Amino acid sequence: MDLRSDVRGAYTVWYRDVLRFFSDRTRIVASLGQPLLFLFIFGGGMAGAMASLGGGEVDYRRFMFPGIIGMSVLFTAVFSAVSVVWDREFGFLREVLVAPVSRAAVAIGKVAGGSTVAMFQGGIILLLAPFIGVDLTVGQVLSLLGLMLLLAAVMTAFGLLLAARQRTMEGFQMVMQFLLMPMLFVSGAFFPLNGVPVWLRWLADVNPVTYGVDALRQTVLSATVSESALAALSLRTVGANVACLAAFFLAFLVPAIALFSRQD
């Protein structure tokens, strides 16, 4: 197997996942339900109680908007790996694995496809920004798309790592339900992590979603919030968050490829 075949195989897997996403309009519309619920119902209800955020400079819905983007990317990216389990159950995965393409290329194609789909899904959430008073420049939008793509790559690799040995859809969904909501809530998507108990901060530090949400929030609020208020709501610099996300990506991708390469 040569490099050209591997690239073509990875592209084919990526294209299949992206095509499936854009051809399923019901999935796109339905996936907006939970973000809208959290942003307008939960956010509207908690706005009064969280009025002191950033010294009173930050409306709660604007604060949680990056967390909603992170939630959309998180769920879409991880559940993109469901297709691995689905394809295994219906025999399609076996046909892919016997093709003259390395299994590492197939795994990379799955990660690329899931990352692209999750970034597009997060991009759709960006369209809600004007409705909650968030004004974004072109530069901010481009930065947000890049951060979403990186976070999506991390979480798709994580999902593939978990899906590599799952045999049934039911088993994979149980694992996801056990992990995803805790990862979301511990990430600081809905409340600031500065001043939380030490054990909760430790959990946040080993949670890759934390770094994505923190970077997204700083990018969204950078043009409208004072530096002191933004510092009070942030954990580390955007550059440090990006570096940590890149490290998580490699930590998930390498074993995911290794496990995927041993598929029978």
**Number of DSSP helical runs:** 13
Helix percent reads over 70%
Mean pLDDT: 81
Strand content: under 5%
Radius of gyration: 19 Å
Give an account of the 3D structure.
- By secondary structure, this protein is mainly alpha-helical.
- The protein has 13 helices and no strands.
- It has helices at 3-23, 25-30, 33-46, 60-80, 82-89, 92-97, 103-126, 138-163, 169-186, 198-205, 208-221, 227-233, 238-261.
- The longest helix has 26 residues, at 138-163.
- The protein is globular.
- The protein starts with a helix and ends with a helix.
- The mean pLDDT is 81.
What's the arrangement of secondary structure elements?
Layout: H1 3-23, H2 25-30, H3 33-46, H4 60-80, H5 82-89, H6 92-97, H7 103-126, H8 138-163, H9 169-186, H10 198-205, H11 208-221, H12 227-233, H13 238-261
Helix pairs in contact: 1-7, 3-4, 4-7, 4-8, 4-11, 7-8, 7-13, 8-11, 8-13, 11-13
Describe what is shown at a glance.
By secondary structure, this protein is an all-alpha fold. It is built from 13 helices and no strands. α4 (60-80) packs antiparallel against α7, α4 (60-80) crosses α8 (138-163) and α7 (103-126) packs across α8.
Features:
globular; mainly alpha; 0% strand; 264 residues
